[in-house]
Amino acid sequence: MSDVLKQWLKAKLTSLVSVQSASIGKEPDLVAHLWSGVRIRIYLIHQPVKTRAIKRAVQDASNIGVGTMFIVAANLLPPSGTRFIPDEWLQAIHALSGDQIYAFQHTKQGPELIQTHFEPMGGVAKWEMQYGPHFTFNRLRFYTLSTRPRFIKGTWLVADFDSPAFWKDNDYRRHQQKERMKRRRATGNTHWHHWEGFQTWRDSHRGDSNPNTPMKTYLDACYENLGVKPDADRDSVKSAYRKLVREFHPDVSELPKDEAESRFKILTEAYEYIKSANNWQ
User: 170-277 has which CATH code?
Assistant: First the structure.
């Protein structure tokens, strides 16, 4: 099955206008030669690996001006919508691939590649597994990428298929919010947690909570984080969001970059959720 996958991927690579040729090996599994003279090493990950092996591979390649790409077996990833803490090696590949992971799987029609993403869940130190639509092989892109996680921190030469960041698309984000609400209603638990400030989720069933305090819904928390009342109209919500964004945008905020990015993300998610809940297009 691995040979079939390699042959299929080789054919896909050589069909790209930027690729001069591609060859199959053992380690790396494939090497793509671009018309620009650049080489790309492609590793197919069939089982969990050590983070240090990932770092060594990208480090060795970068030192000689060669790009690296990792493609992971889809069965090593959880189902869509799962909230989890990814293994460190998966987080490393996610960072090296521009906040995404290309995953391969075998279907009745043959091999296929899918695009996936780990979406950070504010304050709970977990990620949500997200699967994107099937994408078209347009081109093989080679570029320099700086990664921040301590276990893969550095500046590396990497490659990807220049596929759009589906998780940033507004229509996709609205769809995800609606799917989350459906799952909550299906379990009869529409008030899992309430949100305090910008930083943390607090379990609404903790023993130290005040039983006389009404439990906030996620929508209530979104309004609160934008500093508006739940009955605020569309213009008021939009105005509040824009004001806060100007304050907390990582490019202009006086806060440390990590904190500014976190607050900016929470504000944006709150605003998008409010728009989705009210069907504001």
Answer: 1.10.287.110
Q: What is the model's pTM?
A: 0.64
- Provide the 3-class DSSP secondary structure of residue 143: strand
Q: At what angle do helices 170-186 and 257-277 cross, to 10 degrees?
A: 70
Residues 193-249 have pLDDT tens digits of 333 333 333 333 333 344 443 444 667 778 888 889 888 999 999 999 998 888 888
- Looking at the DSSP bridge assignments, the partners of residue 101 are 116
Domain boundaries defined on the chain: 2-167, 170-277
**Torsion angle, CA of 189/191/195/201, rounded to 10 degrees?**
-30
In Å, how far are 10, 90, 128, 198 from 87, measured between CA atoms? 29, 5, 13, 26
Strand 67-73 relative to strand 101-107: parallel, antiparallel, unpaired? Answer: parallel
Angle made by CA atoms 244, 247, 252, in degrees to the nearest 5? 145
The half-sphere exposure of 17 on its side-chain side, counting CA atoms within 13 A, is: 2
β-bridge mates for residue 119, sequence order: 128
Q: Which helix (H) or strand (E) holds 34?
A: strand 30-34
Which residues, 6+ apart, have CB-to-CB distance to 78 below 8 Å? 84, 129
The architecture CATH gives domain 2-167? 3-Layer(aba) Sandwich (3.40)
Structural tokens at position 218: 């996620």
Task: Name the residue type at position 202.
Answer: R
Residue 46: which of 29, 23, 22 has the closest Cα? 29
Please state, in angstroms and rounded to a whole number, the distance separating the CA atoms of residues 206 and 216: 14
